[in-house]
Amino acid sequence: MARSVWKGPFVDGYLLKKAEAVRASGRSDIIRTWSRRSTVLPQFVGITFGVYNGHKFIPVLVTENMIGHKFGEFSPTRTFYGHTADKRSKRG
Amino acid sequence: MAKQAINMVDQRICVGVITGAHGVQGFVRVKSFTATPEDVAAYGTLSDETGTRTFGLTLTGAAKGVLLGRIDDVTDRNAAEALRGVEMWVDRSELPNADDDEFYHADLIGLTAVRKDGSAFGTVRALHDFGAGEMIEFDLAEGGNVLLPFTHDVVPDVDIAAGQIVVNPPNAVDATREKSSEGDGE
Fold it and tell me: Is B121:B141 a contact under the CB 8 Å cutoff?
């Protein structure tokens, strides 16, 4: 069942506070969090979070497309590394 | 630990493996390791792991998650069966040039990483993209490993020829609940 609209998106309060503090500082710190259940809010865009997957912190650079999703969606707990024969990565 | 699909010494890359025979006319089943499966036959001459035997592979179709193809001079099932398990490798130089600021994983994995001040940071272990941007994983010089965003800020310099990349690791701050104050929403 979907969450009631009147409640607004859920986000852990301490995460919101820390994000505001980092944004105010102007530094590009990674905010390490265990709160996989928190919703990505518009004010998080541009901030990098380290989202714990039970093993390590996965860096998540928040973009506009992620708004409304949960942090845990971007930090898989099971990983298939696959093959890297001709895979390429573009530096952001 | 999984077998390495990149031979750093010879600069060769494993692009696929023959998993068995298909039919009685010498067709083989091929498991592709390339980003686009059909590209397994697109990078020129294929050879086995030792580099002593070369193959001409012509893809003919796909079935149940594998590609079907024909190897030159293989015309019956027995010959095709004999190729089961044979890996197909290509020279790194056969891959097309990457775009600006784009890097083959094969080029980056194993590079030495140093901090801006020249101190050792570790080696590149892998690159990932879980949907939140490219990230690069390092085996740290002091032990353990760490994932960092693959961005200009964090990785300002990549020098493949020198076998070295420069890393500017960002600070990490923990977002944790203060014990005496707010609840956690439950």
Answer: yes
